Amino acid sequence: MKIYLAGPDVFLPDAVEIGRRKVDICVAHGLTGLYPLDNIVDLAAPDASRQIFCGNEAMMDQADAIIANLTPFRGAGADPGTVYELGYMAGRRKFCLAYSNDGAVYADRVGRFLTVTSEDGRLVDPHGLTVEDFGHSDNLMMIHALELHGCPLVTPAEMPVDVWHDLAAFEACVGMAAARLIAS
């Protein structure tokens, strides 16, 4: 089973090392991890961003499953590129798994960044826009895509000290993917 390894990990200073660790965890479970930074891209080329996009989609097309890192990135929610990739894979009815090292309720996380108040029975931000409040760790579209096309979002009982390098929740997802492979 080939698994596309999605997430904002590619932006970390040690992104290549994190990717190697994730691929090694996959191998230890009898799976093949496909890490986006393994694509060969000429970053100096005028079409570098398109090369990245096309390379990542080609990897997802080869993959049987995705494990998406939905740990909040630069705000209260998941990295938008990772969310696109999860939707891409769900739309192709591929096996979808994801984890977040911050299991707090989304509405509570929004409150870390903005003043959230209750107005007419709904939570609102300072602009009067409704803050999604279904008690989920992130947007309902991601939560239910996972439930319907794979496994529920994996979160740790306690947020790790280093949310970007703790791979326990990732390894739990790999274990679920390996169990599926054995069952099929």
Task: Assign the structural class, choosing from mainly alpha, mainly beta, alpha/beta, alpha+beta, or little secondary structure.
Answer: alpha/beta
Query: How would the global form be characterised?
Result: globular
* Radius of gyration over all CA atoms, rounded: 17 Å
Q: What is the makeup of the main sheet?
A: 4 strands, parallel
SSE layout and pairing:
Elements lengths: L1 E5 L8 H14 L3 E3 L13 H15 L2 E5 L10 H12 L3 E5 L6 H8 L3 E3 L2 E3 L15 H10 L18 H16 L1
Helix pairs in contact: 3-5
Characterization of this structure:
- This protein is α/β, with parallel strands linked by helices and 184 residues long.
- 41% of the residues lie in helices and 13% in strands.
- The protein has a four-stranded parallel sheet with strand order 2-1-3-4, with helices on both faces.
- It is globular and about 50 Å long.
Throw out a few tags for this protein:
184 residues; alpha/beta; 4-stranded parallel sheet; 6 helices; globular
Summarize, please.
The chain has 184 residues and is an alpha/beta fold. The chain contains 6 helices and 6 strands, in the order βαβαβαβαββαα.
